[in-house]
């Protein structure tokens, strides 16, 4: 009989766990830098709608201005005259949230391989080495997190990783599933309550 009690309790917990499972997403950052004027951006400058140059300086590159990757609109070299850092405002993320961005390198650096480091909430979540063509960085937050998104150059000099198409999305449960989940959890609770009442007689 104890097994049945444990099973009913487990069903309730499972329902609540399912309730917390993220199956949708809300975009928090969606930045391609195409509306940003090309050129060097110094500390405290805004770069697009979501980022500020936190330290050093960066270079916005695009059509008509040192465009290494035609057809991609504008993109940002994390090393302007020297290494720079882009920082977002503070965001609260649920487990299952995602981050992605495209990255390559400033081709004027020749064979030099630049580095960029990625942080969220003060914790490093990745790093990339810039190549001769765009690749994509992807990261999934397995637990809830809160803080700023920081993308920082990891090398000195004027040639850095270039980034584009930054997307940060927080996971949310599907609203249409919530009533069913609550009903399932409530049913499990009532079964266990009925069992305990019967046992007490």
Automatic annotation (TrEMBL):
Keywords: Signal
Top-level taxon: Bacteria
InterPro entries: Ice-binding_C
Signal peptide positions (record): 1-25
Record-given protein name: PEP-CTERM putative exosortase interaction domain-containing protein
Gene source species: Chamaesiphon minutus (strain ATCC 27169 / PCC 6605)
Phylogenetic placement of the source organism: Bacteria, Bacillati, Cyanobacteriota, Cyanophyceae, Gomontiellales
